[in-house]
Amino acid sequence: MITLASDFGSPYPAAMKGVLLSRADARLVDIAHDFPRQDVRQAAFWLREILPYFPPAVHLVVVDPGVGTARDVLVATAGDHVFVAPDNGVVVPVAERMDADPSYYVSSPDDPASATFHGRDVFAPLAADIHEHGLEAILEREDFRPAETVARVEFPAPEIRDRSVEATILVVDDFGNAVTNVPGEFIADAMGETVSVDGEQVPVRRTYAALDPGSRLVTVGSHGNVELAVNRGRGADAFGVSVDETVQMEKSG
Amino acid sequence: MITLASDFGSPYPAAMKGVLLSRADARLVDIAHDFPRQDVRQAAFWLREILPYFPPAVHLVVVDPGVGTARDVLVATAGDHVFVAPDNGVVVPVAERMDADPSYYVSSPDDPASATFHGRDVFAPLAADIHEHGLEAILEREDFRPAETVARVEFPAPEIRDRSVEATILVVDDFGNAVTNVPGEFIADAMGETVSVDGEQVPVRRTYAALDPGSRLVTVGSHGNVELAVNRGRGADAFGVSVDETVQMEKSG
Amino acid sequence: MITLASDFGSPYPAAMKGVLLSRADARLVDIAHDFPRQDVRQAAFWLREILPYFPPAVHLVVVDPGVGTARDVLVATAGDHVFVAPDNGVVVPVAERMDADPSYYVSSPDDPASATFHGRDVFAPLAADIHEHGLEAILEREDFRPAETVARVEFPAPEIRDRSVEATILVVDDFGNAVTNVPGEFIADAMGETVSVDGEQVPVRRTYAALDPGSRLVTVGSHGNVELAVNRGRGADAFGVSVDETVQMEKSG
Fold it and tell me: Distance between CA atoms of C99 and C81, rounded to whole angstroms?
């Protein structure tokens, strides 16, 4: 099985699929191709939340704002999963969630500027060949070396002070829910009550449907983080927040 | 084979795919994940039009405005097809189109508010297990009971009075065609002529291409219903109609 | 393997998938279903760039502004690839790229206006049956004849005069890159320098990342054509160009 994730939109992912199917007899599964363009951190968040639900697979990830620069090609392993991606940190959070001690290998392109479509010409052939021939044969053939360091993306740590927190919006999902970096535990003791969000009291509930349609609420999303939401509406709009912005939350009592 | 349909957009459906592939050796086929959000009736319309073209499969459908409430989990069977969905009516029209007497089973969640992502945590595992272990084993294991009643969605009946009808727009498709609830037979005897739509005479034609690009027409869509359309344009815009709105159509003579 | 490409958006492609899977035991691969609506030339461009990366397959293509008219149904073969499409030229460029001398067969519908959804009712069954039963059996059964001529789409030839060219924008990709009809060789001797685009000097670079984010550049895309681009931005917007428009490019010296 090979999964595909990118910020390519359409139809470029199909060229990667052609390359994969020409070189490997693999089931292909699309994760998403509409990750916010060239935003490594948001893609890293979603991959960390989604890929752990998959059985062992080769995960091909191409969100690559550094294409055409000297950034390395990364192969990571976590348990029986293999990740193929640019060395920009996009697969590090998911690899580290799956395995306390993932292995990282890097290869430096001879001529980084030689292809504008590395997804098709570099990453897809590599993922296909790992699927067909096994990791060891490919690491050797392609002149990979164990990585001393890898590029990382940092999710900002929430600044929790007693009963208040400065929360950062990590992503806004397709429903409009604004997902923060605050662990759901923060609001566990406020469930059924309210918290202050930038000075306004907002109900804390376990489910969207606990309130009337259109009502704002603070809840815990399926990823375990605190979310700013609206029942049947778009939380990010109702709270007036965007990715990377911060809000102050404070529990009473 | 397991088909997937939802209003999740991207990338949440991928988490369901991971769960399915972890538990079942099944071919996955996406129906759509961009159904109008939390609109059970529009999703029910499309499923009724599309799923009958499929060979026997487990159909996983998650359009679930009642997530987090006490609504039941529904398993329906129609011939060799099995549907897994919330008990809100979304799969009832397609089940009844496929089989005059579908079977319905429901299960009540112990703690409906315990998971915000029932698609991933409740419905996908259930669909996978039915695919792998067969319906009977699962119905028993999961404490399902035959349903005495199931939730239903009602498509408004067209009010036909002799040569006129009050038509309701059921859906607007991606081409912009406004699909009404009026059976195509209504305009069979007006083909090649005109009908009045809210007082304006509009040509009735069998195909979009029968008129110049940009021309409005009334036709019968692939679903068999009367459609308000524009050749190479968006009928809903040209007629100024939206889902759930009504128009008056009248044949002359 | 059957690939699917259309301008249907969602969810109509799923009906084609149901038909294909009911008639054929084939792997299905989506190329794209969001080709610019009823724009045969843009679809033909993308198919020519993408399908050659695939292993032998039946390629089902439905971009069909002439649906409901007397246009023929086309089956084309290029090497071990088979194309099923309306006879409007959409698959001719890719067939001719794959094979210097493709074979073309056409069939005239008995009643072209009899179905509004030819993708589901005509093209998908044909593609499935070719996949299952082989081309020869189907060409005979369906009353196909070798085509004396086929409809063609013409990509405008760039007007190159010494060191200047009038370039036409063929497509704008999802990244916003404006892809011209000018072969990349035209700017090979200007790499690292600038060219004039409609009178303004713009850097010519091999990769987007060679300049600061937001910078306009002229480069060669993965398809080998000259592109108007912006590093991490939308070239078409920054250059103010749309599909079918022309720009004047001139190399200095």
Answer: 10
> Alpha-carbon dihedral of residues C202, C203, C208, C214, nearest 10 degrees?
-50
- pLDDT, one tens digit per residue, over B136-190 is 999 888 789 999 999 999 999 999 999 999 999 999 999 999 999 999 999 999 9
Which positions in chain A touch B18 (Cβ < 8 Å)? 50-55
Q: Give SS3 for A82.
A: strand
Smallest CA–CA distance, residue A182 to chain B, in Å, is 17
Whether the Cβ atoms of residue C155 and residue C42 lie closer than 8 Å to each other: no
How many other C-beta atoms lie within 10 A of the C-beta of residue A216? 17
Give CA–CA dist B73/B81, Å, rounded. Answer: 17
Report yes or no: C27 and C1 within 8 Å, Cβ to Cβ. yes
Pairwise CB contact (< 8 Å): B14 & A29: yes
Q: Give A115→chain C minimum CA distance, Å.
A: 7
Tell me the pTM: 0.96
CB contact under 8 A, C65 and B1: no
Using a CB-CB cut-off of 8 Å, the residues of chain B touching C15 are 49-50, 53, 222
B84's tokens: 């897994």
Q: In this complex, is the C-beta atom of C38 within 8 Å of any C-beta atom belonging to chain B?
A: yes
- Please count the other Cβ atoms lying within 10 Å of the Cβ belonging to residue B163: 15
d(CA B221, CA C116): 6
**What's the Cα-to-Cα distance from A50 to each of A183, B7, B148, C239, rounded to whole Å?**
17, 17, 37, 38
Rounded-to-integer distance, Cα C49 and Cα C43, Å: 10
What is the ipTM, given to two decimal places? 0.95
